[in-house]
Amino acid sequence: MSSWLITCKTRKKIVLVGDTLTGKSCLIWAFLNEEYKERVMITPTVVHDYLTEVNVDGKIVALQIWDTGGESDNDKLRFFAYPGADMFFICYAVEIPTSLPSIQEKWLPEISEHCPNVPFFVVANKVDKRSHENYDIRGFNWKRGHIKHGVEGKLMADKVNAAGYFECSAKTGEGVKELFQKALKMILKVDDEDKHFVRREYFCVQQ
Predict the structure, then answer these.
(1) What is its main location (predicted)?
(2) What tens digit of pLDDT does each residue of 123-145 get?
(3) Strand residues in 21-179 grouped as ranges (E)
(4) What is the DSSP secondary-structure string of 84-111?
(5) Which of 64, 31, 57 is nearest to 177 (CA)?
(6) Residue 205 belongs to a domain
(7) For the chain, how big is the Rg over CA atoms in Å?
(8) Which CATH number goes with the domain that contains 58?
């Protein structure tokens, strides 16, 4: 890690949350390394952070990305990743239908309690897992347990008032760069509109 990154004035923080096995670690790996790795972590993630630089419309941003585990055993440890967050990605996997309702049932209440007013995206991971057989009119594959298209995810994003909805595949690279670029552009726009705040850490509380 370069000393320039550490001293860079424009520093932003994005935290990924979501059920276990929803592809959070693979998504981060694909963004940082521009490649896919089948198994990023041999053991389940608890809390892990990464630091990289990103060019956003000619402006260099030092981006800190926090990966968190979705297991209930990590509930208390996960909160240590939240203070100072500028954006959350609430992730679900199209191959795990139960991970979609968890957005409203678990993840939104959790980040709302600890970081009220911090924006978040709903992110559909593993979209490469979709096939084109045995889907009903809603796009749900009852045989395989997959969600075919973004209708259900977009409805959920609208329902929970997400700042955006994105579909990604760490395996193919689909939507990965666009997701992080859009998030940083939104964060920087908020900063431009609210310049009298140096950082928005007051949004996050830790219990």
Answers:
(1) membrane
(2) 999 998 875 444 444 444 444 44
(3) 47-56, 59-68, 87-93, 120-125, 140-141, 146-147, 164-167
(4) T-SEEEEEEETT-GGGTTHIIIIIHHHH
(5) 31
(6) no
(7) 17
(8) 3.40.50.300
Contact assessment for residue 107 and residue 157, using Cβ atoms and an 8 Å cutoff: no
Domains of the chain: total: 1
Element (H, E) at 13: strand 11-18
Determine if residue 143 is left, alpha or beta; phi over 0 gives left, psi from -120 to 50 gives alpha, anything else beta: alpha
Residue numbers of the domain that contains 109: 3-192
**Is residue 207 a part of any domain in this protein?**
no
Q: Which stretches of 69-177 are assigned E, i.e. beta strand? A: 87-93, 120-125, 140-141, 146-147, 164-167
Tokens (6 digits) for 25: 């670690």
Q: Has this prediction a pTM greater than 0.85?
A: no
